From TrEMBL:
<protein>
    <recommendedName>
        <fullName>NACHT domain-containing protein</fullName>
    </recommendedName>
</protein>
<dbReference type="Pfam" id="PF23238">
    <property type="entry name" value="DUF7068"/>
</dbReference>
<dbReference type="InterPro" id="IPR011989">
    <property type="entry name" value="ARM-like"/>
</dbReference>
<feature type="domain" description="NACHT">
    <location>
        <begin position="130"/>
        <end position="261"/>
    </location>
</feature>
<dbReference type="Pfam" id="PF05729">
    <property type="entry name" value="NACHT"/>
</dbReference>
<dbReference type="InterPro" id="IPR016024">
    <property type="entry name" value="ARM-type_fold"/>
</dbReference>
<dbReference type="InterPro" id="IPR007111">
    <property type="entry name" value="NACHT_NTPase"/>
</dbReference>
<dbReference type="Pfam" id="PF12765">
    <property type="entry name" value="Cohesin_HEAT"/>
</dbReference>
<dbReference type="InterPro" id="IPR026003">
    <property type="entry name" value="Cohesin_HEAT"/>
</dbReference>
<dbReference type="Pfam" id="PF13646">
    <property type="entry name" value="HEAT_2"/>
</dbReference>
<dbReference type="InterPro" id="IPR055496">
    <property type="entry name" value="DUF7068"/>
</dbReference>
<dbReference type="InterPro" id="IPR027417">
    <property type="entry name" value="P-loop_NTPase"/>
</dbReference>
Length: 1090
C-alpha cells in the first residue's frame, strides 16, 4: 500500500475497499455459513416463531404441547388407537370419535426428541426413519408444531447430531403467482423463501443449493408444511419441482387427514398424526391461564361434570377459546350444551373484533346484549355464515380468494375483504404477510365452520329462503329448500355435528319442535339405529326445559328406550347405550323398566363407557347392596370404577363391601374399581392389602393388580408385594414382578432382593427375577452380564427368560448376540424357538446367523420349524435358496408349519407364478387352517387368474365356517363380481352361523349396485343382517325417488325390474313385527314414524 500517494489516492481507495470486502467475507464465513446464519437469525427469530393466543397474549414455547401418535409404519397393521388413559374408548359414532380427539394409547405416542429414533418396521427389523408424514386436522397444531421444531432445533439443540440445518417451507407459497416460472428449482425456492431481501441473496441461495447436492456439506432436514394446500392446482414445472421437493431424503411433511399423496412419492418411513391434549396437559394449561385458584377449580369441576366438553378441550384452539370466554359466561351459570358454549365463545370474540374493526368503543359493547352485538357486525356475520356453509357444502376447508370473491359478489356487501377479514378472530390465514389474492383462510377449527354453516341454514329456514348451494369445484350452483336439504343429508355422517348445531341453535329460539318434526318425517332410515343416533345426538344439544317441544321429546326418548331394549334383547349387547350422548334420563328409565337379562346386558355395555351421568350412578349403586346376580354386580362395579371423581363415601363403602363377596368375579371387579383411585381411605386400601394373603390365587393376583402403579404405597405394602415373589402360584409371582417392574421408586433393598434371586436355587424364582428386571434402563452392567450368563442356565425356562429379557435391546454386545445365536442348537425346543424370536427382525444379523435360522427349517420340532419361518418372514434380503426352502415347507406334514409358510409368503411382491399356484393348491388342503391361510394369502392380489378366483368362490361351500368367512372377505374387495358369485354370497345369508352371515353382508356391501331380484329369495335374512350391522356401523336404508343403502360416506344403489323396493321392505317390517310378538321377543320398534 506504500506504493500509493496516500489515503486520498483513487487507486488506494479502490484496493483498500477490496481488501476490506475480503476481510468482511472472511469474518462472516463461507457463503453457506452466511446463508445458515441469515436463516437462523432473521427467519427463525423469536418474533417470527411466537405463538399468539386469542387473547393476544403469547404462549411460551415450554407450555406448547404438541402430541404425536403413530398411525403406522407404512404397510404395517398398526393403527392409531389403543386404550388411552382408561380401558374404555368412546363409541365410534360419538362426537369425540368424529373429531378424532380420543386419547390414544401412550405406547404409540412419539415425542419430538425421539422422532428419528430407530423403530420396528413391518418386517420386524429396526429402521431409523428419515421420511415422515404428520397428519392433523385444522386447529390441532400442525403449524405450531413446525414452529416448535424450528425453535427447539435453534435454541434447545434438538437433533443437532443428525442435521446441520432445518428448512421450514410453507408449501402454499409455491402457488404464489410470481413463482410460476419455467424451470423452477431449489435455488429459486431458497431465494424466494429466505433471501429475496438480501443484496447477496442470489449468492446465498446458490451456496445452499450446492450444499443440498453435496453430502459432505451436512444433512438438511426439510419441514414441508401444508401439503394439502398444494395437492391440487399446481401444474407444469412447479408440479415437477414439488415432486422433487417431497422426495428429498430427509423430510417431515405435514398435511390434513384427507390429503391424497402423489403416486410417484418415494416411500415414507413413518406416519404420525397430531392429536389433542392429554388430560394432564388440559389441567396444566388451565392452571397456567388463570391465576385465581377458585377459578381454576370451577373450570376443572365443570369439565369433569361434562365429559363431552372435556373431550372438546383436547383440541388446543378450543381450549384457548373456552378459557378466553370463561369470565364472560352468563351469571346464571356455564352453558350445559356444546352449542351454548359455542354461542358464548362467538359473542366473546365478536366483542373483541368490534374493537379491531373500529365499529364501537369498549364502553359501548361491555354491557351490550347479544342482539345488539350481532347488529354491530351484521354484514360480517352474514358473510361468515355464507362462507362457512358454502365451504362446508363443497367440502372445502381452505377458503381461497376465488371462493371469497364469489360469495362477496352474491352477498352484495360493503365489506372490504382484504381489510376486514384479518380482523376476524374466527378465521386464520396461512400467511398474514402475503397479498390478499395469494392468501387462504380457514376457520379456527372445523367445528366453528360447522357452527356458522348451521347459522346460515337457520337464517334461511326462518326467512323461508332457499339455500345457495354453490360448488365452485364443479362450477355448479343449485338452490335448495332447507327442508329438502334436511331430507337429503340428514343421515350423511359428514353433517352429524352440523345437525347438532342446528338443533341447539333452533332450541335457543324455541323452534326445536319444527326441526324434530321434520327429522321424523319420511323418508326415514328403514333399518332404524342410524335414525335413533341422529335423534340422540340432536337431543343432546336441546336443553331440558318446559316448552312446546316437551311432549315430542318425551315420545322421542320413549322410542329410543324401546330401541335400547330391542337391541339388548336381540343382540345380547347394546351399542346405543355406549354413546356418551345417550342421556341420563333415558338410561335411568330404561334400566328401571328392563327385565333382569336386559338389565345385565345394558349394565355390561355401560361399563365400557368412559363415564356415565351421575343420575345413573344414583340408580345403579343401591343395587350393589340389593345384589341380584354376580354378572350385574360386577358390571356395576366396573361402571363405578370408571368414575374417578366425586364418588360419595357411601358408594365407596358399598364397593369395599363387595371385597367380601362370595363370587370371585365380583371380588376382582371390586378390587379393580378401587385400584388406581387417589382418594381411597386407608381403611379401604388396607382391605385390598389383606387380599394379598387370600387363599384364592386369583384374588391375590387381583389385589396386586389393584395396588399396581400407586405412587403412595408405604414400604410395608411394597414388602408384602415382594413377599409374593415366593408365592406358590406362578401367576401370582408374575403379577408381583409386574407390579414391581418399572417402579422408579423401588427401594434399593427391594431391587437387590430381586437381583439376588438370579442365583436362587429354584429355577422358577430365577426366571421370575429375570422377568422382574426385564426392561429396566437403570441396570448396572454387572446385572446385565448376570442375565446374559443365564443363557447357559441348567433350567430351560430360565434360558428362555434370559433370551426374552435380552430380546429387542439395540445395545447388545456382539458376544451376547453370538450367545443367543448359539441357543439355536439348544437341546430344548422352547429355547430354540425363543432364540429365533430374539434374533428375528434384527437388521444387523450376519449371513452366518441367517443361515443358522434357515437351517432350523429342517428342525425335528414343528414349533421350531414354524418359528424359523416366522423369523425369516418379511426380510427383503432373503437369498433365493432360502426362499425356496420356505416354499418347500408347503409340503410339511404339520398344518401349522404350512400355515406359517403361507403367512410368510403373503404380500411378497416377488412371488413367481409357480409359487402362487402352490399356494392356490392349498385351497384344497385337508386341514381347514391351511385352506384359510391360503385364501388369506391370495386376498387382495390384483393379478389373480379367473381359475384361482373360482377356486376361492368354491370355498363359500367349505365345511369350515372360518374358511367360508375368509372366502367371502377375499371376494369382498372386488366390485366386479358376476351375478352367479353374488347369488352364492347371498345364499350364505341363510347360514346358521352369524359370522358367516356378517361376512356375506360385508361382501355384498362392497358392490356399487345390487339387484333386488338377486336378493329377493333371501330378503328377510338380508334385512336382519343389515339391521345387526347397523347397530355397530353407520349404515342406513333409504328409499325415496331412488333406493340405496348408505355406508358411511358411500352408498349402494338398489335396483329391481320386478319389485318396488320400499314396498318390499314395508311388507317385511310388518311381518317381522308380528313374528317377534309370536315368538315372545320384543317387537321391532317402528322405523316409519314416531
Amino acid at each position: 500500500m506504500n506504493k500509493f500517494d496516500g489515503p486520498k489516492c483513487p487507486d488506494y481507495k479502490q484496493v483498500s475497499g477490496k481488501i476490506l470486502e475480503f476481510l468482511t467475507k472472511i469474518c462472516n464465513g463461507t457463503p453457506l455459513a452466511q446463508a445458515d446464519a441469515r436463516i437462523h437469525n432473521v427467519h427463525y427469530s423469536l418474533e417470527r416463531l411466537k405463538i399468539e393466543r386469542l387473547s393476544g397474549d403469547l404462549l411460551p414455547m415450554d407450555r406448547c404441547y404438541i402430541n404425536l401418535a403413530i398411525v403406522e409404519w407404512l404397510g404395517d397393521n398398526a393403527t392409531r388407537g389403543g386404550k388411552g388413559d382408561t380401558a374404555q374408548q368412546s363409541s365410534p359414532f360419538s362426537l369425540l370419535a368424529r373429531l378424532k380427539v380420543e386419547t390414544p394409547d401412550k405406547t404409540i405416542e412419539v415425542t419430538l426428541p425421539t422422532l428419528f429414533e430407530p423403530r420396528k418396521s413391518q418386517d420386524g427389523q429396526k429402521k431409523q426413519p428419515s421420511r415422515i408424514l404428520i397428519r392433523g386436522r385444522a386447529g390441532v397444531g400442525k403449524t405450531t408444531l413446525c414452529k416448535k421444531i424450528v425453535h427447539d432445533f435453534k435454541y434447545n439443540n434438538l437433533w443437532q447430531g443428525l442435521f446441520n440445518r432445518v428448512l421450514w417451507v410453507p408449501l402454499r407459497n409455491l402457488k404464489v403467482e410470481k413463482r410460476q416460472s419455467a424451470g423452477y428449482n431449489f435455488r429459486d425456492l431458497f431465494y424466494h423463501e429466505y433471501f429475496s431481501q438480501d443484496l447477496e441473496g442470489r449468492e446465498l441461495s446458490e451456496a445452499l443449493w450446492r450444499a443440498l447436492k453435496d453430502p459432505k456439506s451436512g444433512r438438511t432436514l426439510f419441514i414441508l408444511d401444508g401439503f394439502d394446500e398444494v395437492s391440487q392446482g399446481l401444474g407444469g414445472d412447479m408440479s415437477v419441482f414439488l415432486e422433487e421437493l417431497l422426495n428429498q431424503p430427509n423430510v417431515i411433511i405435514t398435511a390434513r387427514p384427507n390429503a391424497r399423496l402423489p403416486p410417484r412419492l418415494d416411500p415414507l418411513d413413518l406416519e404420525l398424526e397430531t392429536i389433542g391434549f392429554y388430560p394432564d396437559q388440559i389441567t396444566a394449561y388451565i392452571e397456567n391461564t388463570f391465576t385465581d385458584r377458585e377459578t381454576i377449580k370451577e373450570v376443572q369441576s365443570f369439565l369433569q361434570r361434562h365429559p363431552l366438553m372435556q373431550g372438546l378441550m383436547r383440541i388446543p384452539i378450543q381450549l384457548d377459546a373456552f378459557c378466553y370466554t370463561w369470565t364472560g359466561f352468563p351469571r346464571e351459570g356455564v352453558p350445559e350444551t356444546m352449542t351454548a358454549v359455542y354461542k358464548a365463545i362467538e359473542e366473546s370474540l365478536w366483542k373483541k373484533d368490534i374493537l379491531k374493526l373500529q365499529k364501537k368503543k369498549d364502553d359501548q359493547i361491555k354491557k351490550a346484549s347479544r342482539k345488539k352485538i350481532e347488529s354491530f357486525v351484521e354484514q360480517e356475520l352474514r358473510f361468515l355464515e355464507c362462507l362457512a356453509f358454502l365451504g362446508f357444502y363443497d367440502d372445502v376447508i381452505d377458503l381461497d380468494w376465488e371462493l371469497r370473491n364469489a360469495i362477496s359478489d352474491r352477498f352484495e356487501s360493503d365489506l372490504l375483504l382484504d381489510k376486514d377479514l384479518p380482523c376476524l378472530s374466527f378465521l386464520r390465514t396461512s400467511d398474514p404477510s402475503s397479498n390478499d389474492q395469494d392468501r387462504n383462510y380457514h376457520f379456527l377449527h372445523l367445528t366453528f365452520q360447522e357452527y356458522f354453516a348451521a347459522r346460515y341454514f337457520i337464517r334461511q329456514w326462518k326467512d323461508k329462503q332457499q339455500l345457495n348451494c354453490l360448488q365452485l369445484s364443479r362450477d355448479n350452483c343449485n338452490n335448495m329448500e332447507p327442508t329438502t336439504f334436511l331430507e337429503k343429508y340428514k343421515y350423511n355422517p359428514r353433517y352429524d355435528i352440523f345437525w347438532r348445531f342446528v338443533a341447539g341453535l333452533l332450541d335457543a329460539d324455541d323452534m326445536a319442535l319444527d326441526f324434530f318434526q321434520m327429522i321424523e318425517k319420511e323418508p326415514r332410515d328403514l333399518l332404524g339405529p342410524t335414525h335413533q343416533r341422529l335423534i340422540m345426538h340432536c337431543l343432546s344439544e336441546v336443553e331440558r326445559k318446559e316448552s312446546n317441544f316437551t311432549g315430542l321429546r318425551a315420545r322421542l326418548e320413549n322410542q329410543l328406550e324401546q330401541w335400547l331394549l330391542f337391541e339388548s334383547d336381540s343382540t345380547g349387547n347394546s351399542e346405543l347405550v355406549y354413546e356418551m350422548e345417550c342421556s341420563g334420563q333415558v338410561l335411568s328409565n330404561v334400566l328401571t323398566q328392563a327385565s333382569e337379562s336386559e338389565r345385565t346386558v345394558l349394565l355390561e355395555s355401560l361399563s365400557r363407557r368412559t363415564a356415565v351421568p351421575f343420575n345413573v350412578i344414583e340408580v345403579v349403586s343401591p343395587w350393589l347392596t340389593n345384589r341380584t346376580s354376580a354378572r350385574q354386580c360386577a358390571a356395576i362395579l366396573r361402571i363405578l370404577g370408571n368414575e374417578h371423581n366425586n364418588l360419595p363415601d357411601k358408594v365407596l363403602q358399598s364397593i369395599a363391601a363387595r371385597l367380601e363377596d362370595e363370587d370371585g368375579d365380583v371380588q376382582r371387579a371390586a378390587i379393580e374399581a378401587l385400584g388406581g383411585r387417589a382418594d381411597l381411605p386407608d381403611q379401604v386400601l388396607q382391605s385390598i392389602v389383606v387380599r394379598l394373603e387370600d387363599k384364592d390365587a386369583d384374588i391375590r393376583w387381583e389385589a396386586i393388580e389393584g395396588l399396581r402403579g400407586r405412587a403412595d404405597l408405604p414400604d410395608q405394602v411394597l414388602q408384602s408385594i415382594v413377599a409374593r415373589l415366593e408365592d406358590k402360584d406362578g401367576g401370582v409371582q408374575r403379577a408381583a414382578i409386574v407390579g414391581l417392574r418399572g417402579r422408579a421408586d423401588l427401594p434399593d433393598q427391594v431391587l437387590q432382593s430381586i437381583i439376588a434371586r438370579l442365583e436362587h436355587e429354584d429355577g422358577e424364582v430365577r426366571r421370575a427375577a429375570i422377568e422382574g428386571l426385564r426392561g429396566r434402563a437403570d441396570l448396572p452392567d454387572q446385572v446385565f452380564q448376570s442375565i446374559a450368563a443365564r443363557l447357559e442356565d441348567e433350567d430351560r425356562g430360565v434360558r428362555r427368560a434370559a433370551i426374552e429379557a435380552l430380546r429387542g435391546r439395540a445395545d447388545l454386545p456382539n458376544k451376547v448376540l453370538q450367545s443367543i445365536a448359539a441357543r439355536l442348537e439348544d437341546k430344548d425346543r422352547g429355547v430354540r424357538r425363543a432364540a429365533i424370536k430374539a434374533l428375528r427382525g434384527r437388521a444387523d444379523l450376519p449371513n452366518k446367523v441367517l443361515q443358522s435360522i434357515a437351517a432350523r427349517l429342517e428342525d425335528k420340532d414343528r414349533g421350531v420349524r414354524r418359528a424359523a419361518i416366522e423369523g425369516l418372514r418379511g426380510r427383503a434380503d432373503l437369498p433365493n435358496k432360502v426362499l425356496q426352502s420356505i416354499v418347500a415347507r408347503l409340503e410339511d406334514k404339520d398344518r401349522r408349519v404350512r400355515e406359517a409358510v403361507i403367512e410368510a409368503l403373503r404380500g411378497r411382491a416377488d412371488l413367481t407364478d409357480q409359487v402362487l399356484k402352490s399356494i392356490a393348491a392349498r385351497l384344497e388342503d385337508e386341514n381347514w387352517s391351511i385352506r384359510w391361510a391360503a385364501v388369506e394369502a391370495l386376498r387382495g392380489r390384483a393379478d389373480l387368474p379367473n381359475k384361482v378366483l373360482q377356486s376361492i368362490a368354491a370355498r363359500l361351500e367349505d365345511k369350515d365356517r372360518g374358511v367360508r368367512r375368509a372366502a367371502i372377505k377375499a371376494l369382498r374387495g372386488r366390485a366386479d363380481l358376476p351375478n352367479k358369485v353374488l347369488q352364492s354370497i347371498a345364499a350364505r345369508l341363510e347360514h346358521e352361523n352369524g359370522d358367516v352371515q356378517q361376512a356375506a353382508i360385508e361382501a355384498l356391501l362392497y358392490q356399487s349396485a345390487l339387484s333386488l331380484d338377486v336378493l329377493i329369495p333371501h330378503i328377510r335374512s338380508f334385512y336382519d343382517a343389515l339391521l345387526q350391522k347397523s347397530f355397530r356401523e353407520h349404515l342406513y336404508w333409504y328409499a325415496s325417488e331412488r333406493s340405496f343403502i348408505g355406508t358411511n360416506l358411500g352408498y349402494i344403489s338398489l335396483t329391481s325390474e320386478q319389485h318396488n323396493v320400499k314396498e318390499v321392505v314395508r311388507k317385511l317390517l310388518l311381518e317381522k313385527g308380528a313374528a317377534n310378538v309370536n315368538d315372545g321377543r320384543r317387537r321391532l320398534p317402528s322405523t316409519l314414524s314416531c
